[in-house]
Design brief:
two-stranded antiparallel sheet, globular
Length: about 210
């Protein structure tokens, strides 16, 4: 989803090839022989792997197209990369642990951890956005894409846990940001249906 948002922002046309869950095509294995997983961008017959790396590649390869995805200043780029790594390595791992929790006590602990890490992201948004609509300022950028691509999962986990994780009272800035992100033209058509994503989650994380 991340690279498709980036391509949409740059108004770059592309062909989307969907992999079948549980199988790996010859093209995928050939294009990403190291990790053997999606996503992969094939540009000029050369594969680029890993979603955040692909987004950066798109920003550089089509630098004259559309808005810049990464911030213009080196420090701001470093901060955006730091928080994008935090989203993948810390925040989403905690969110996913709610789905795999065994028993109520483990689930409560996982929820508390997600709320703590979401609070860090609330503060990061306030600092990065400088009062503007997105982490990147006036338009969607690198960190917006990194976190926004998980908004569908956020809803799925809330349903599974029967608990509000993106709270308008506790994290008002993130709550409003999420609403704006989902209706952006580059994003709107790509947001997954919650019911379908929930079905996929049950396959991916079967209950014990």
């Amino acid at each position: 989803m991340r690279l498709r948002i980036a391509l949409n922002l740059k108004s770059v046309s592309y062909e989307f090839l969907q992999e079948t869950y549980g199988t790996k095509s010859e093209l995928l294995l050939k294009s990403n022989p190291v990790h053997k997983k999606m996503p992969v961008l094939i540009h000029a017959d050369k594969p680029v792997c890993e979603s955040n790396i692909i987004v950066q590649y798109i920003d550089e390869a089509w630098s004259s197209y559309g808005p810049s995805i990464l911030p213009s200043q080196p420090y701001d780029r470093a901060i955006a990369r730091f928080w994008a790594a935090y989203v993948d390595d810390k925040w989403f791992i905690a969110l996913r642990s709610i789905l795999t929790a065994r028993g109520e006590e483990e689930k409560k602990a996982a929820i508390a951890e997600v709320e703590e890490r979401t609070d860090h992201l609330e503060k990061a948004f306030i600092e990065c956005s400088n009062g503007k609509p997105f982490f990147n300022g006036d338009h969607i950028g690198y960190l917006d894409i990194a976190l926004g691509s998980f908004l569908g999962w956020w809803k799925v986990v809330e349903l599974d846990a029967n608990h509000i994780l993106l709270d308008e009272t506790k994290t008002p800035s993130l709550f409003k940001w999420a609403e704006r992100f989902c209706i952006e033209p580059a994003v709107k058509s790509l947001m997954p249906e919650t019911t379908k994503l929930a079905e996929f989650a049950r396959k991916l994380f079967p209950k014990p």
